[in-house]
Design goal:
Layout lengths: L7 E4 L2 H5 L6 E4 L5 H9 L19 H7 L3 H16 L13 H12 L5 H10 L6 H5 E2 L2 E2 L1 H7 L3 E4 L2 E4 L1 H7 L1 H5 L9 H16 L3 E3 L9 E4 L15 E5 L5 H7 L2 H5 L3 E5 L2 H11 L3 E4 L3
Parallel strand pairs: 9-10, 10-11
Antiparallel strand pairs: 1-2, 3-4, 5-6, 7-8, 8-9
Helix pairs in contact: 5-6, 5-8, 5-9
Length: 293
Amino acid sequence: MRNAAQGEMLLFDRGASQDGRWYSEYVKVEPLDRQETTALSGMSEPYAPARIDEPEMPIEEHDRAIEEGRDESVREAASVLQKAGKERKGRLILPTDMPTPPQYAGLLAIYNNPNSGLKELVTFITSRGWFTSPSTLYGSKGNPGIFQELISKSLATESKDGYALTEEGLRWVDPDRIMESQSDKAGSEDHKRLMRKTIKMLQDRLQLAIVGREKHSFDILALPVNEKRRGVWDAKTAKGYECQTSAREDSVKENIGKAERWGVPMVWVAEDNEVIDRIRHICRGGECMLVGD
């Protein structure tokens, strides 16, 4: 908190915590302007702002607002997951401020090449075949490029030393920050290490790795890029990843119903072939993935 800028705070919802959701909400508000400060300092009469851009919403409307999203990529992905969840028993809620796939590629480029210049970052992205269009990378006709968008959204900064990510940008690509929202159920250090490896593997495939806040959610939810519309995420092919450091039957059976509950296919992840074989035996099949060093 000592590093928070003016107008930035963490909001703790007591009602949500009593309901078992142990996480905070990041809130950023505009500082008061001179007119507002002057009016409030007098306290002689109630102050009525000239206009309210975003009226407050009741707490019960909060989840609905998250599902609806604020841009095309979020709305479309949230709609798919909501429909799948209603057909089952639950629903996964996506963050409203997810970066677009091009922005995510830029975040990963800066994260893997800190304090690098534009040329090196563009080479990192194009060498992986993620995005190659000059207009996407550099911008055109008044439309900003990837890195200009990151700066405008306060996800990155530029200096004479090159580009760097802000704390807000790091929370989308740094595995430890991604796992923070699930810190109370991330498990042992071995489990966290396996989650870090899985997140890194998904990032290498340009898949957005999200750690869900919902109780009994997947360890990791991954959204791939839509093949036909490269600027949005494809929730229809999203998958949940469950990291297993052992193949204890009670642990496997506890997680086995998540795919049906959330309406999303699940992949078992392990570092050992014996663990994979044991999981397949308990589940009588299922998609599994071996993650190495």
